[in-house]
Amino acid sequence: MKITEEFVEMMICPACQSKLRLREDGAAIKCLGCRRVYPIEDDMPMMLPDKATIENDEPTAAATTERPA
Questions:
Q1: What DSSP letter does each residue of 3-69 carry, written as one string?
Q2: How far apart are the first and last CA of the chain?
Q3: Mean pLDDT of the chain
Q4: Which domain holds residue 19?
Q5: What does the buried/exposed string (b/e) look like for 46-58 if buried means 16 or more CB atoms within 10 Å of the residue's CB?
Q6: What pLDDT is stored for residue 36 in this prediction?
Q7: Of 6, 9, 38, 55, whose CB neighbour count within 10 A is largest?
Q8: What are phi and psi of 21, to 5 degrees?
Q9: Is residue 68 included in any domain, yes or no?
Q10: Mean pLDDT value of segment 15-37
Q11: Is residue 66 part of a domain?
């Protein structure tokens, strides 16, 4: 099963509870808040903070730490 953007939009970052986005290459999910990048291995997102890498770019304006009610 391929990970879709719609699926990722229902998730939050386990480290900071910000929104996530599927990377353009489809190989990872990126947090818009803390910039962690969670790899996708064998069509499974590895949503463990210790599995993530952190990208050096600035957090995006779309980042939010609010959780949906």
A1: --HHHHHT-B-TTT--BEEE-TTSSEEEETTT-EEEEEETTEE---GGG-EE--SPPPTT---PPP-
A2: 28
A3: 86
A4: 5-54
A5: ebeeeebeeeeee
A6: 97
A7: 38
A8: -135, 145
A9: no
A10: 96
A11: no
CA distance 43 to 26: 10
Residue 63 lies inside a defined structural domain of this protein:
no
Q: Is residue 18 very low, low, confident or very high in pLDDT (cuts 50, 70, 90)?
A: very high
Does the pTM surpass 0.85? The reply is no
Output Rg (C-alpha) for the chain, integer angstroms: 11
Q: Which pLDDT belongs to residue 58? A: 55
Task: Specify the CATH number for the domain of residue 9.
Answer: 2.20.25.10
Nearest alpha-carbon partner for 68 in 1, 5, 7, 19: 19
